[in-house]
C-alpha cells in the first residue's frame, strides 16, 4: 500500500495524483461542488470527511482563486452556501479530464482480461477501509 501511495502521488498534498498543481483537498471540494451545484459548507465537511476549520480554509482558498463563492443560506442565518463560479466549473472540468486521462492510461496498461478484477479489488479495498 505504501508503494502504491508513493507511486500514485497520494503523499503529495499540493498536487493531485493526475499531476495538476492543485491541493488534493481542493480538488475533492471542487468535484463535490461541481457534482451538486451548491452545498452548505457543513455538507461539504461531511462529504470531504474533514474538520469544519479545515473545510473552511479550503473554501476560503477556492474563493481566493476565484473558483467559488459563499453566500448566506436563505433559511438559516448561520448557514453558508458554497457554489462554484464559472472559473471554478472550468477548473473542475480540467481536473476531471486530467483524472480520466491518468486513470484511463493506468487501466490501459493492465491486461484487458484482468481489468474487471482490478476494479473489483479496488472497490473491495475501499469498502474495507471505509468500515468504522
Automatic annotation (TrEMBL):
Pfam families named in the record: MarR_2
Molecular-function GO terms, alphabetical: DNA-binding transcription factor activity
Domain HTH marR-type: 1-127
InterPro entries: HTH_MarR-typ, MarR/SlyA-like, WH-like_DNA-bd_sf, WH_DNA-bd_sf
Record GO biological process: response to stress
SMART domains attached to this UniProt entry: HTH_MARR (SM00347)
PANTHER family xrefs: MARR FAMILY REGULATORY PROTEIN, TRANSCRIPTIONAL REGULATOR, MARR FAMILY
Protein name: HTH marR-type domain-containing protein
Provenance organism: Planobispora longispora
Amino acid at each position: 500500500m505504501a508503494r502504491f501511495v508513493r507511486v500514485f502521488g497520494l503523499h503529495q498534498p499540493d498536487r493531485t495524483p493526475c499531476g495538476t498543481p492543485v491541493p488534493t483537498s481542493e480538488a475533492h471540494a471542487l468535484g463535490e461542488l461541481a457534482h451538486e451545484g451548491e452545498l452548505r459548507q457543513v455538507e461539504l465537511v461531511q462529504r470531504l470527511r474533514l474538520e469544519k476549520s479545515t473545510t473552511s480554509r479550503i473554501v476560503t482558498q477556492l474563493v481566493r482563486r476565484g473558483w467559488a463563492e459563499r453566500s448566506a443560506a436563505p433559511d438559516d442565518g448561520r448557514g453558508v452556501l458554497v457554489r462554484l463560479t464559472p472559473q471554478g466549473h472550468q477548473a473542475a472540468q480540467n481536473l476531471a479530464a486530467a483524472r480520466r486521462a491518468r486513470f484511463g492510461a493506468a487501466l490501459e496498461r493492465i491486461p484487458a482480461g484482468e481489468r474487471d478484477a482490478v476494479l473489483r479489488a479496488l472497490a473491495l479495498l475501499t469498502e474495507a477501509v471505509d468500515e468504522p
